[in-house]
Amino acid sequence: MTVKVFLDEKDIPRQWYNLAADLPTPMLPPLGPDGNPVNPEMLAPVFPMNLIEQEVSTERWIDIPEEVLDLLYRWRPSPLRRAKYLEEALGTPAKIYYKDEGVSPPGSHKPNTAVAQAWYNKQFGIKKLTTETGAGQWGSALSFACALLGLECKVYMVRISFDQKPFRRLMMETWGGQCLPSPSETTNAGREILKLHPETPGSLGIAISEAIEAAVTDPKGETRYSLGSVLNHVMLHQTIIGLEAKKQLKMIGEKLPDVVIGCAGGGSNFAGLSFPFVADKINGANIRIVPVEPTSCPTLTRAPFAYDHGDVAKMTPLLPMYSLGHTFVPPPIHAGGLRYHGMAPLVSQATVEGLLEPESIPQLECYESAVLWSRTEGTISAPETSHAIAAAIREAKKAKEEGKEKVILFNWSGHGLMDLTGYQAYLSGRLEDFALPEHEMQESLKSMADLPKPPMNKSGKW
Amino acid sequence: MTVKVFLDEKDIPRQWYNLAADLPTPMLPPLGPDGNPVNPEMLAPVFPMNLIEQEVSTERWIDIPEEVLDLLYRWRPSPLRRAKYLEEALGTPAKIYYKDEGVSPPGSHKPNTAVAQAWYNKQFGIKKLTTETGAGQWGSALSFACALLGLECKVYMVRISFDQKPFRRLMMETWGGQCLPSPSETTNAGREILKLHPETPGSLGIAISEAIEAAVTDPKGETRYSLGSVLNHVMLHQTIIGLEAKKQLKMIGEKLPDVVIGCAGGGSNFAGLSFPFVADKINGANIRIVPVEPTSCPTLTRAPFAYDHGDVAKMTPLLPMYSLGHTFVPPPIHAGGLRYHGMAPLVSQATVEGLLEPESIPQLECYESAVLWSRTEGTISAPETSHAIAAAIREAKKAKEEGKEKVILFNWSGHGLMDLTGYQAYLSGRLEDFALPEHEMQESLKSMADLPKPPMNKSGKW
Prior knowledge:
Chain A is α/β, with parallel strands linked by helices. Chain A has a domain at 4-9 and 64-107 and 232-430: Rossmann fold, CATH 3.40.50. Chain A is built from 18 helices and 15 strands. In chain A, the strands form 4 sheets. Chain A has a 7-stranded mixed beta sheet with strand order 1-4-5-15-10-11-14, with helices on both faces. Chain A has a 4-stranded parallel beta sheet with strand order 8-7-6-9, sandwiched between helices. A two-stranded antiparallel sheet of chain A has the order 2-3. The longest helix of chain A has 18 residues, at 385-402. The first copy, chain A, is globular. The model of chain A has no long low-confidence stretch (mean pLDDT 95). The A-B interface holds A 2-4, 6, 8-10, 73-75, 85, 103, 105, 107, 144, 147-148, 166-167, 170-171, 173-176, 371, 374-380, 417-418, 420-421, 423-424, 427 and B 2-4, 6, 8-10, 73-75, 85, 103, 105, 107, 144, 147-148, 167, 170-171, 173-176, 371, 374-380, 417-418, 420-421, 423-424, 427.
């Protein structure tokens, strides 16, 4: 039995898939501070116009430029693997397949959009990109992409992560990126925070503010900001994952999966794998599509669909999405990439439309699953990815109970070699679960009280 | 142009290649403390008999058991890649191919022999393996292998590395291995050292002594010791690398390489890639085959071919090999896996026979090469691997000067994600080269003065 399915470079998908073209109701627009829809020109100081066009596009298929494919070939197509050894350990009749996104040089799915964004920026004449990073996955992916294209890269890394994860910073520097602890002295936003709170550990919200300020204040206008999740064009670039997976399943004569799973923080790795299958579902296929989030950060499973800011500092437009409120501070779980109050608008709307079946899983079950994975399949998974593994194991056990040979497909979004302290905590028995009491959630939801509400009827249509 | 060549699982090599069968002169035997050849029975308390048989075999081809193939399929066949982006940066007419051994779950070539050794031990009824590890590559590979087979694994890790590289230890523990700082209180050897030197940073020599003692003193006789390099059966298991590479070059219609390169510490990743090509060379092919070592630990390039102990504590038999003397302490270069005073007997004898053309490269040139690599090919290389990259770049530049379209093949033996501090030192300008003054080398060579000498004439024959 073959456990790896490789797709030839010549068979790589040559177009990205845009779910916005197929959703039953059109996407709601982002809103500006005045409550009116944001128009593309308003975003021009932040993003290059070619990416803004992708952001608002309703075309179903968008060509991947040859030069972007050439960047992707360094690690794509990524392998589709069968988790045969895990199946055996579980004694399940289910077949578990997974896309291995850990093969990219930075070790996750993030470079799929990083190289595309860097390339479009370069085409637009941009010389330098800025961004923020929490745990460091995105910052290293963008540094990597900029190295390949000869762009400058400046990453504002949340100070506490900067101090705790020096290896992530060293990855960025090896690729020539500049990594600063945020808040920094290089921006007004940073300096103001430091004046008030010199000892602050920083936050993603502050880091976003600094990165955007650094982009829009470049006197030469040659700098733009780059975001690693949430936005439509990021989801778009990630769909190559699911498009490849479809071809690979076909290559081995496998049917459409019964279940498709991805962990969801901002939504991009989940969207990347699942959106091409959501298209099948819209066309009538019987597929269960599951975004998995941490129980302690239950955006899709407990929060409302609302208009909210993407950041704490309210610098971003209002996005139509499930949100715990922009003031929500997720507990310190190890899956840093899933600690986000909101969710990509495209993933949010697909949920509103009833196309997705979100689940939440507590981190102890995730680590238990990841350790079983490491001792059967062999690889060490990122803490974020462990959520998808845990959900796949739940489905495989259900298939065993039902005696059904289901096909399960999930996204192995990255390796955990830079995130071993979570395993240490788990193996030593020090890891704990975090609940989110209802009253705490209600408190953070209040931060959205005065914001416009998206129109919606009971069937989820507007 | 395709940059990745995948071999189907069904086309994986099904036999290992044993260079001992083809060397012009038979291998010299290891010698015991009395100066007489060691016989297999004397090794029985340390290794299982099925591996001892492989150690002394002169059969050219040895079958890989189906069950070992099934273990290897988790990551093998490994990709053959073309370093097209580096070629473009160098402007060379040479074609640079490399085997990507970084795809194994522990991230290097080491698991090729770890899973085979663990399987043969389990077949022999062994329940537990012990070993030593310096930087941690080997210890994590053996922990990984034992996890897959349900064996216990105990790793004695040199104390200074244990303290400095907690992530390596966490990898081992995630796979269920037990990792102890050496010297430890669990062995006589460890306790004696700790009594004399309570603050010792430890050494590979001490750790080997502890691991062997822990194996041979198991009252149930269910424990054996496992070594990750140097010995013949380890070289044997690694030849799958070169055998795959041959098939992959053939798949794309490529000729035999003009140059084959691997970094060499104990010799195993170099041997694994190169031995199948050494066979071609013995049969008349014109191939330049280059083991690359650090200038500061110049075993093949400056030391004599001699009989020497494999360890500082003189616990091992005398091996016929190039050696700087078992008392040699290599400078603290970052390529910990290349800090070894000796060299695999098979690699040593192939050198004596004139089949290899060893080179040494200083570490600054290696890091400069590895940083260029990371910004063109994209991946971050292990410090050991950077030596092979530096040698490949030297060859590619030579090909440019000569205007020749040479085919260069090297072994990308592993990634450097757990070894980023060396990059930090390089990028900040703090990294330095180490010379080995002749008088210092002569001093350490004295430790071999009273040992038997291998017979050898000027043409390298005995």
